[in-house]
Amino acid sequence: MPLFPSPLDLTTLAGKQAQTVKLIDARIQQAAASLKAAYDELRKQVYINPLKLTPTEVHSAFQQLTVTGLNATQLSELARVVKAVANRYQENVISDDVPPATITV
Questions:
Q1: CB neighbours of 81 closer than 8 A, spacing ≥ 6?
Q2: pLDDT tens by residue, 57-100
Q3: Under a CB-based contact definition with an 8 Å cutoff, are residues 40 and 48 in contact?
Q4: Which DSSP letter does residue 103 get?
Q5: Sign of CA dihedral 80, 84, 85, 86
Q6: Model confidence at 2, in pLDDT bands (50, 70, 90)?
Q7: Are the beta carbons of 96 and 86 closer than 8 angstroms?
Q8: pTM of the complete model
Q9: Residue 98 to residue 17: CA distance in whole angstroms
């Protein structure tokens, strides 16, 4: 990991570049953490439901009651996509039994 000069001199090109990279890095780390937290919470609601619903009961309820417009199959697809995005930029940040998906850019 590169070291940034400390303190950054924002009057120089190198200082401005270093500051910009620091801000981008911070946002990427926040996004990755948010993705993982959302993924973990969704998995918990489906598979370790605090109200003791089974995964089948959760999927059935989701299919009937969601306001997202997604169906139960799309909920599963969403889990695969979120996992693939998170793991594309930081290998094995999410490692579980959800089948892998490949994202091609």
A1: 101, 103
A2: 999 999 899 999 888 889 888 888 888 888 887 778 888 888 87
A3: no
A4: -
A5: positive
A6: low
A7: no
A8: 0.71
A9: 39
Instruction: Count how many residues are written for the chain.
Output: 105
77-84, Cβ contacts within 8 angstroms, sequence gap of 24 or more: 78/42, 79/39, 79/42, 79/43, 82/35, 82/38, 82/39, 83/39
Paired tokens of 16: 């401005």
d(CA 91, CA 48): 25
Q: Which two tokens mark 37? A: 């937290």
DSSP label at residue 50: T
Query: Residue with structure tokens 């959302």?
Result: 38
Contact of 2 with 42, CB cutoff 8 Å:
no
Tokens representing 81 are 């996509």
Question: What CA dihedral angle connects 15, 21, 27 and 28, to 10 degrees?
Answer: -160
